[in-house]
Amino acid sequence: MNTKTDIPNLTDKDYFSLSQNTYSEKKMRKAYENKTPLVNDSKKAFYVDKIKKDPDTGLDVYVFVQAKKKEGKWVKPKEPENVVVGFQGTNQEQIKADVISADGGNVVMGQDPKKKVKYIMKKEAPENSKAITKYNGSMEQAMLLKSGEYKIVTKTSQFDQGDKLVANEVKKYAGTNTVISTTGHSLGGADAEYAGVNNHVYSVAFNNPSIVKLHDEETQKKIRNGEFDLYHKAIINPDDMVGAGWLLEYDRHNGTTIYTKDPSQSRRERIDRFVSPFGVPGVLGNLITSFYGQAFAKDPDTHSLNESNFTFDKNGHIKSVDGSKGVYNQNIESFSSYSGMNGQTIKVDAKYAKELARRLQAAIEDLKTKKQAIEQFPHDHSKMIYDVKSICGKRLGEFKDLDPSDVEKAILFHAPFVKDGAAFYDSEEQYQTEASLHYLIRDLEDISEFIVKMAEDLKDKDNELARWLRL
What we know:
This protein is of the alpha+beta class. Helices cover 44% and strands 18% of the residues. Residues 350-377 form a coiled coil.
């Protein structure tokens, strides 16, 4: 699979608009059936190309294809500039599938998204129909199946279903210039992040819970190392317990987490929820009451996909909702006037630059440690060969027809590389790796020094720094 992630030329506000549309089911169905485009405030238009629903898993997803103007009219191109897969969030009409199975089972408990569940359905049931019930192997269900009118259907979670749908879109437009991306709000944002990382497509999510633990261990490691930070953006109201963490604050989302205001007050309120004269039951009551009020009763309304929680600048990029000095990048614990991760416009303050330099220096130290281990390896390898010869040599007396030369021959026979003696590694590759690390460390130290110097005089060199960092 192609692991390159293309960055679309869509703004945060474009994704916000598409995510809002996923909740307007009648409007989406009408646009799909009538083949009419949806035009947003920035005068971009999208056709609803596909609708996929599953009432048993809670999946609600729309594939939006960007339209283009031809002779003054919107048309649906065969090779669109952008295709956005939009996931609807928690639907209270599907409270069991969304909240219990997906929100509770997958998001909270971390259940395997690929876990298979069997359902009983009528054989002639139309697509998107709800199953009769889950299959449990009872005698009653056996009688239903025996009648010939019912069948067993196997399904996975909405996360896995959405992941496969995005994979199909990637396959459909392979070899074209079309850029695929995903978006969504709340649970839909979590779906978007999950499928985005797995399929190497860009994603923008709003007030979505962290689902890092749903990925395999290797992907989780990459997420924590920041390998997806440039390609996945979670835009979060820090007051929102769904997006910021219902119990403790989330360590991170799949990519970059952008808070729409200073999170310090939200963090103080989070601590207050753990204080109760009624002990543990009181704390649990505080948490449940606060979470239900925000997520469902909208009291206070910190979670909804509306303009009180998300505002944008004239270019369509997210900005602070309270008019403060900027949005807050949780990944580096710093404010910035953040307008995107694709090098369009960014103002970096001194604290931001210094933190980048600190992290870069930490990476350099880690590379130096690895370089030392690589430099030491030939010595360790030679000692290993010597130890093998010594151990085998001491036991030659146990065998009639063996002498020290046989030990040497055996080692040479099994060694994949033979150059000036036996070697169980490629000395040329080892040398090239060592040299590459040397030059990489040298270049990174130059960059780190450059960032530190610019941070000292950021007022005059802000634009130059932004271009250098290519954020």
